[in-house]
Sequence to fold (173 residues):
Amino acid sequence: MTIKTIITEPNKILRQVSQPVSSVGDDERKLMDDMLETMYAANGIGLAAIQIGIPKRIIVMDISKDRNKNPLFFVNPIIKNKDKEKTTYEEGCLSVPNYFAEVDRPKYCEVEYLDYNGENKILKADGLLATCIQHEMDHLEGILFIDYLSKLKKTMIVKKLSKKKNNPDRIIV
Ligand code: NI
Fold:
């Protein structure tokens, strides 16, 4: 397993729409293993393939609190059903480092997907799990959680992130 570099905003790659995977084979499993390792190393609870620059509809997640490692793998996920009722979480994203904001999303959803072995599965999710899978599925469409914020707030965050990218660490010697 290899830890990959996570792409951060602003970067056009994050805005790409990811493509469906035709089947789950060894290449896809290797990618999922790398993604999981990368996500754990960054202390994240979810990661989409596009965040490491691969425009495939693949997501890894692990929301287990104690880091007992309970990984979930989603290939070609599709939302089948979702609640009208919303819930609010303060969200962050490995591609938007150090910024957090409250986002409303459907409280409950059902997702159909292929798992690590290519088997067809349905996940019935609520609470954190529902929010997390919806956040990750947004990545597949090139959407980031900051897109839900006011234009002003979003512009400010992106500006600060690009400044950080351009300025190397300052040292005084
Ligand atoms: Ni994210």
